[in-house]
Amino acid sequence: MKPLVRPHGxxxxxxxxxxxxxxxxxxxxxxxxxxVRVSSRExxxxxxxxxxGFTPLDGFMGEADWRGACDHMKLADGLFWPIPITLSVDEExxxxxxxxxxxxxxxxxxxxxxxxMQVAERYRIDKAHECVRVFRTVDPAHPGVKMVMxxxxxxxxxxxxxxxxxxxxxxxxxxxxxPAQTRKLFESRGWSRVAAFQxxxxxxx
Length: 205
Known about the structure:
Blueprint: H1 20-30, E1 35-37, H2 40-51, E2 59-60, H3 63-72, E3 87-89, H4 91-95, E4 102-106, E5 113-118, E6 121-124, H5 127-135, H6 143-150, E7 154-162, H7 168-172, H8 179-189
Parallel strand pairs: 1-4
Antiparallel strand pairs: 2-7, 3-7, 4-5, 5-7, 6-7
């Protein structure tokens, strides 16, 4: 049986979700950090980073990777990546976080802590430019365009440590599987070909 293809851009999966003693220790530390509520989209991105679905990213993109994804569908190091993965805050919040500072990222609905983040960079983006490059339109009727244009003006970049899967395992039960779990399943069944089908809101580009 042929081995499965490698994860995108990496020899192995790179999940950022902590476990065991490391998770409990980081949760305690997160409770002492400034809290920033994320958007629903950013919560989903934290989940994907946590389970390794965004391997090999280690957190939210800096300006060079944002620009590369928009303009060339590549990260700054040349790895194919067609969609920016960013975290946005308003000016007041950004002004309180010095480069190198740490924050706790909280769920937009109930405020429980999803991740910790070391802020390596703060930068502004041209939202219309992102929309034109990624969605090929600036029409606010497009849900992706509407989402980008309504996000706060400052992006924060840096590595994160994920503390929670945001209730998704409980919500979806046995239907919920991480990349590590699906890869293990494929190998156990000896599958050499796997087709993926996304039923709603497919990736653009």
